[in-house]
Amino acid sequence: MAAFDKHIKRNEPFNETYRMRHTDGSWRWWRSRGQVMRNASGRAVRVVGTNSDVTDLIDMQTELERRNQQLISANRKVEDSALHDPLTELPNRRHLDRVCKDLLETTSEKRPYFSVLQIDLDYFKDVNDKFGHAAGDATLVRIAKYLNTLKHKDEFVARIGGDEFIAILDDTPDATRAQAFCTDLNNLLALPITVDGHSVTTSASIGIAGCSSKQVDIWRVLGDADLALYEAKRSGRCTNRIFDPNLREMADFNRAMKDELSLALAEDGQIVPYFQAQFDAKTLEMVGFEVLARWNHPKRGLLLPGDFLGFAEELGCVAELDRQILASALECLRAWRRDGFVAPRLAVNISSQRLVDPQLIRCVEGMGDDAALLSFELLETTFLDYTNDKVAQALDSLRRLGVDFEIDDFGSGYASILGLINVRPTRLKIDRSLTRNVNADQAIVSLIKSIVDIARALKIEVVAEGVERAEQVVALAGLGCDVVQGYHLALPMSSADVMTRFHKTASSS
Ligand code: C2E
Ligand code: CA
Ligand code: CA
């Protein structure tokens, strides 16, 4: 009625929708529109218009609005799940892409400088393998929780792959905040969680790269952080590295080396076996050779395993390298024999990847009687994996073909007596780090003595490697070592040099 009055008095438009109670008790929606008619002197004489029941229309409109709201929220959910990882509920890579694009478009006064962190869990595959996927998932959820706890409100964290995460933090050019973040994160990850009765701890390697918001090249910063992460992984994990421009050069070098190594493995002749003679500790008679890989690089010359094994590992071709070394070493063995030199034994380093390669058994089968000349050097960690069916089977089949086994670098890592008892290798090789101190450190002398005693009890021969001085030979022989190997007695040498040195002594003695 008030609107009606206003319309008449002030000519305001009259178009009202309102409710009225019907006599049957229900509410009806009513729409009234009208236009006032005036006489010549301007007095209102009547209002012409319509009154209509618009209840159905209103209901329809309300319903439409409700559906529209539903649609909006469903859309938001779809968008949300497209931008989030369902397991950890963290933003995903797509979300990161969006944030990066935003960073490129806005230069924020609030964030003059920021750090990008590439975070990668260490040995995450082992958690999955050893404890199952539930434990893996629990670990990921846990790190997501920690990342959320450690980040400030306006900072960004995301899960961008299996066990890879990104954090974008407000920082200073010296990355103070990023470094503190890394320390806090690893401290939290070191706290054990229990999953299915297993206590699981983990750690992360983190690469850090910074950027001023005045000059954002976010894709490059992400790449830089990734290079820094690679360094963090290489320098032993559970740590962080800050990007420095040398890393880019190093990355270029590494890439080139990997390409060249792939080529070298595809073509013949560059990967060659070298041979280091081993001697009876008492008589100093030559008893065999350890085969050591060398890369005859066309430009860089003869490279040691330390220069290229890491690349082979990253390329996943250590088994192929081992295969080529074994094949070439056998060719040498046969060539020596044709020339009248019979090598008593070849000890070949075998990676765990190669050990479980079915081709290895076939290759050894093809060797016939020569298989009895072979000894495979395995790292303790491979032996300790004896509970792994594939490893156990491979060891059994090879042993049946007459191959010996040696535990390499004994005493440098887990030195497990249980491992010795389970696997009964033919020999164990005392690590260089112990041999080196045999004349200097009484505790080391006792340790070597104990190793020899245990080995004797289990009928395992003892090889001491890394012998660099005459007095070490005497001491090691006195402690009961059976075989000695080291620069003092013979350097690793080419097949031709073996013939020159040992064929002559063999024929002259
Ligand atoms: P390793 O099996 O412990 O081999 C012994 C290493 O000690 C060799 O290094 C050898 O040259 C070095 N060495 C020998 N005598 C002495 C000494 O008196 N003093 C010192 N300081 N060092 C001595 P190299 O040839 O550089 O090989 C390094 C490692 O690379 C080997 O350690 C082995 O783990 C790995 N490797 C070598 N060849 C192969 C291969 O064909 N396949 C695989 N999977 N690994 C290999
Ligand atoms: Ca070895
Ligand atoms: Ca060794």
In helices, the fraction of residues equals: 40-55%
Bound molecule kinds, no repeats = ligand C2E, calcium ion
The CATH homology group name of the largest domain: EAL domain
| Largest sheet, strands/sense/barrel | 8 strands, mixed, barrel
CATH architecture of the largest domain: Alpha-Beta Barrel
- Numbering strands along the chain, what is their spatial order in the largest sheet? 11-12-14-15-16-17-18-19
Q: How many strands appear in the DSSP assignment?
A: 19
CATH class of the largest domain: Alpha Beta
Helical stretch tally: 19
Low-confidence parts lasting 5 or more residues at pLDDT below 50? Answer: none
Given the helix and strand composition, which structural class is it?
alpha/beta
Oligomer: single chain
Named CATH topology of the largest domain: TIM Barrel
| Mean pLDDT across every amino acid position | 91
Question: How many discrete structural domains?
Answer: 3
Distance between the termini: 130 Å
- Nearest-angstrom radius of gyration? 38 Å
